[in-house]
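Minutes, project check-in

Agenda point 3 was the complex the collaborators sent over. CS summarized: two entities, 503 residues total, and the question is how they sit relative to each other. Sequences were read into the notes so everyone works from the same version.
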Amino acid sequence: MTLAARFLGGAKSRLLPVSVPFRFFTTAVCFHVIAWFVLVITAEDLPAFTGGPGMVLAALHLLTLGVLVMTAMGAAFQLLPVATRRPLLRVWPARLCYWLLMPGTLILAYGMASGHASAMHAGGAAVVLALAVFAIIIGDNLRRVGDLPVVGAHGWAALASLAGFAALGLLLVANYAKGVLPDHQAAGLAHMILAGFGFMGLLALGFSHVLIPMFSLSPVLPPRPSWTGFWLAAGAVLLAAVAAIARQPALLAMSSVMGLCAGGVYLWLMYWALKTGMRKRLGLSFFLIKLSWGGLVLSLLTGVALAFGIPIPNGMTLFGFLLIAGWLATFLTGILQRIMPFLGSMHGKDASGRPMTPAKLTAEIPLKIHAVCHVAAVVLCAAAIVADLGALARAGAVFGLIGAVAFAGFALRLVTKLV
Amino acid sequence: MSTSGTNIWQAGDGTHIDVRGLQPPEPLVAILMLLEQDCTQDRVIVHHDREPVFLYPELAERDWDHAIIDGDPGEVRLLLTRRQ
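CS then shared the predicted structure for the full assembly.
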C-alpha cells in the first residue's frame, strides 16, 4: 500500500462495514415476504379498507416501515456519505437505528393486527425513536454538505415530512385507545401524504438525482428544472397535508394539481437522464423503475380525480395502494436489485483476490420471477380494489408473495457469495 | 482536451484525466467515457478530489484494475490499468 493509500483511511471510511447497509437490505427483503404473506391471509378485507386496526393495517406497515423505510435507511446511510464526501461521524447510531426499527415494526404490526393497544404504543415509540436517530444522522450529514444543493433540499424536506408523519402516527396510535384526535380520518390522510409522498417520495426524488444519472451514466441533471420540480413537490406535500387536516377540499385539489406538475417535471428529468446517458441497456432493474414511474403517475391521477370529486370505487384505498405498492415498492425493489450487487462488489473478492463484479453477484432468474409476479400483484390488487373483489385481491397477494420469495432467493444467493 | 470541465492530456506515463471540482456523478461518467474510447492507452491516471468508491464496480465490469498512487496534497490520484 502506498503512502497516499494509507492517508486515505478517512476517505475509505465513507464506505461503511458491509454488515451495516446489508442488515437493512436483507431485513427489508424478509419484511417484503412477511407483508405479502399477511396480505394473502387478509386479502378479502383489502378492497374496502379505510383504516383502523386489523391485518390490512399491519400488512401496510410491514410494507411501508419494514420494506420501504428499512431500504431507504440502508441506502441513505451508505450512499449519502459517499455522494457528499462527508463520512458518518459514528457507525453505532446507524446500528441503533436498525435495532429500534426492526423490532419496533414487528411489535407495531402485531399490535395493529391484534388490536393490542400497548403493543401499538411500544412498537410505535420504537419506530419513532428509530426515525429520530435517522433524522439526526442524515441531518448532520446534510448540514455539512454544500455541493449537492438539490439533493440536500430534497433530504431536508423529507426530514421535515418525517417529523410530521411520525408525530401524526403517534397521535393516531394514541387515538385508538384514548380518542385524542378530533378527526381520525383527516389525520390519517395527512399521515399517509406526509409518509408516502413527503418522506419516502421526496427521498426517492432526491436520490434519483444521483442514482439514475449514475446508473445510466448521464451528466448531472439540469439545475433549473430540478429546482422547479423540488419546489412543486415540497409545496404540494405541505399544502396537501394542511388541506387534509383542515378539511379544505379546494386546497387539496390545488395540491393534487401541483403534485401532478411535480411528477411531470421529475419524469421529464428522468427521461433526460436516460436519453443523454451512455448506458442504453439498463437491465431488469430499470424495467421496474420505469414501471414505478407509471405507478407514480397513476397514483397522482387518482389523487387529482378524488380531489376534484370524481367518483372512483374504493378510491382512497386505490390511491394509497398505487402510491405504496405501485410507485414506491416497485421503485425500491428496482433500486435494491441494482445497488445490492453494486455495493456487494465493493466488499467481495473472487478466488484471484480481485473485486467481484456486480454481474457475478446478481441472479437473473429469481429477479425475472419477482418482476413478473410483482407486476401481476399490483395489477390484480388494484383491479380487485376497484371491482371490490376479495378473491381477486387474494390472487394478487399470492403473486406478490411468490415474487417476494423469489427476490429473497436473489438476496440469499448474493449474501452467500459475500460471506 | 477539455470536455464539460474535464481536462484530459497525454504524458509519458499514460493518459491523464482531471475530474476535480465536478459534481457527482460527472467524474464517474467522464472516466468511463474515456475508458470506452478505443484510442485510450492501457494506463490512465485519474486526478480526483475524493476516492471514487462507486467507480470500482464499473472498473471491475470493464476488466480494469485500480490502485491509489501518490498525488498532490488534497488530491486522490488513481492509476487505472487494463487487465491483460
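Noted in discussion: Chain B has one domain: 2-82.
Follow-up: revisit at the next meeting once the mutant set is ready.
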